[in-house]
Write the structure tokens for this entry.
Amino acid sequence: MEAVTLFFKTIVLRPYVFLFLAAFLFSAIKLIGWPRTWRFWLTTWITAFICEFSSTRTGIPFGWYFYNGSTVGQELYVFDVPFMDSLSFSFLLFASYSVALGLLLPVDPSSTSARLFPRPLRFDLAARTSWAVYGMTAFLFAFIDMVIDPVALRGDRWFLGKIYYYPDPGWHFGVPMANYVGWAVVGLIALALYFLIDRRLAPLSLAQPITPRLLFGIGLYYGVLAFNLAMTFWIGEWFMAVCGLLMHLPLIVFLIVRLVGSSRFYPAT
């Protein structure tokens, strides 16, 4: 009963996390269906939890960092790791996967759609589990954390709270580069496991255009990005916020151009 109580306290304390989680469930079910969605969530959460548990005890794969327990009794912890923290990896990885698909899925040459936006993309198994999508997803997963982690490290200045610290702060606004490597490792492991599962489940129905459904996941990625940039501006870290915005701006522009621009941005295969 105590765990259940702490779970509900976590929802009250971290409503934004569960709003993003709800957005993930909605967009993932729209895109890949429920059987794949819950497997994606569980695989990612378990992978992230194991890596966080390991890193706070061995420094692998994120490097050394520690949770200070400042919110013990206010939210759910699992073996000294905040539940909401490892939970966040699931919707962030799916959002990163969605953006990677938007960037790399080939155009559907069989589509008769005359709509200018969004462009019809092919979502067959080979396309959505390609090596290019795999690598791009891991990159985007670590890339968004380069905005999230610096502001989270300053959580005592907004409603996150000061919940963790690095014993050896890094040059990127106090975050060690090992942390971003760890994020890429989590993404690579979790997505590899999901791709294996995806190949073994019943084929997806591809009768309906996939791109409109893909936009929900892309919107989740940039919704999380906007939330964290807003928090960064709010606490007065203008230089850090502008750096984060400029990092992501070229990718945003390219993604928009790819979805609405001319056919030369679409590989035929």
Summary: DSSP finds nine helices and four strands in the chain. Residues 263-269 have pLDDT under 50 and may be disordered. The beta strands are 66-67, 77-78, 81-82, 164-165.
